Amino acid sequence: MTTVAAYAAPAAKAPLERTTIERRAVGEFDVLIDVKFAGICHSDIHQVREGWGRANFPMVPGHEIAGVVSEVGPGVTRYAVGDRVGVGCMVDSCRVCDNCKAGLQQYCTNGATMTYNGIGKDGEPTYGGYSQKIVVDENYVVRVPDGLALDEAAPLLCAGITTYSPLNHWNAGPGKKVAVVGLGGLGHVGVKIAHALGAEVTVLSQSLRKKDDGLKLGADHYYATGDPQTFEDLKGTFDIILNTVSAPLDFTAYLSLLRTDGAMVNVGIPEEPVNILLSSVFGNRRTLSSSSIGGIPETQEMLDFCAEHGLGAEIELISADQINEAYERVLASDVRYRFVIDTATI
Ligand SMILES: [Zn+2]
Ligand SMILES: [Zn+2]
């Protein structure tokens, strides 16, 4: 066991504070990672505040982890000391179900082990990346290619794969029209990735406040959803709508923007049930779907793709004592576009 400095929420809705946690000894197939940077994901806030139901405390959030391998177990073959690596939302899964065998560990039918607010196979609670070190089985670690800066790579481990996986699955690419709803932590990466995939990209945001940013990030068009005319002008336009907003939307209105066989994929998950009129999917064989992060092989593919395209997250680097303030700013949509904690400051 190693004692490690971390930032934790001691109880639901409590501010995060500096503490120490124990990391397990490095096992046969484990790597010890010196965490360098950890992104702040909106879902960290949902979980600290129990927006998604009962959670485990103390909680050390953080599932956008980038760092450097500092020790490997004797059975480790894929990584060596000094390698630049990342860890996303999962640190284990059953490995034997059909989904695990297919590399879709995020849909493990026996339940993947989440990076934090989960229980590991050793029965101990899992603690995330707001900490200086983490021990992870090598099969749940990905490589950060040399072309990517570690701080800009960290948010790709959740925001990147969460947007890449559905864009990939629903075949975003040349000749396809993709709308990204919301230009926040997820949305800004989604715009970059959809653009790099070769799609024609439209941002649908409440106002035109971030229009210049959106166009710079790679969007071809930018519309305000606060203007009802947008829904008239864009009726039947898109092959894919990637919704990154976790507040409930008027799904019926958004679905009307899809062309025949178009898909609206929701990666922002509201805390409450939503209402839709099924007639809004019925008429044009539209799909309303959702997607959860991505498997380990696809996460590696995403990082390689981002490195090839020189694509990282737009970040605001903060010190650990700014985490609570950063949470408030995320809730107020006052971040461009992802807070990343410099874990040396913990
Ligand atoms: Zn996340
Ligand atoms: Zn499984």
From TrEMBL:
Q: Any idea what this protein is called?
A: alcohol dehydrogenase (NADP(+))
Tell me which species this is from: Streptomyces brasiliensis
**Family matches, as Pfam families:** ADH_N, ADH_zinc_N
Residue limits of the Enoyl reductase (ER) domain? 14-341
InterPro entries membership: ADH-like_C, ADH-like_N, ADH_Zn_CS, CAD-like, ER, GroES-like_sf, NAD(P)-bd_dom_sf
- What EC number(s) is this enzyme filed under? 1.1.1.2
Name a GO molecular-function annotation: alcohol dehydrogenase (NADP+) activity
CC cofactor: Zn(2+)
Q: Which Gene3D superfamilies match?
A: Medium-chain alcohol dehydrogenases, catalytic domain, NAD(P)-binding Rossmann-like Domain
Query: The organism's lineage?
Result: Bacteria, Bacillati, Actinomycetota, Actinomycetes, Kitasatosporales
Query: PANTHER family annotated for this entry?
Result: ALDEHYDE REDUCTASE
**UniProt keyword list:** Metal-binding, Oxidoreductase, Zinc
Q: What class of enzyme is it?
A: oxidoreductase
Q: Which PROSITE patterns match?
A: ADH_ZINC
Q: Which family does it belong to?
A: Belongs to the zinc-containing alcohol dehydrogenase family.
Reaction(s) catalysed by this chain, per the record, are: a primary alcohol + NADP(+) = an aldehyde + NADPH + H(+)
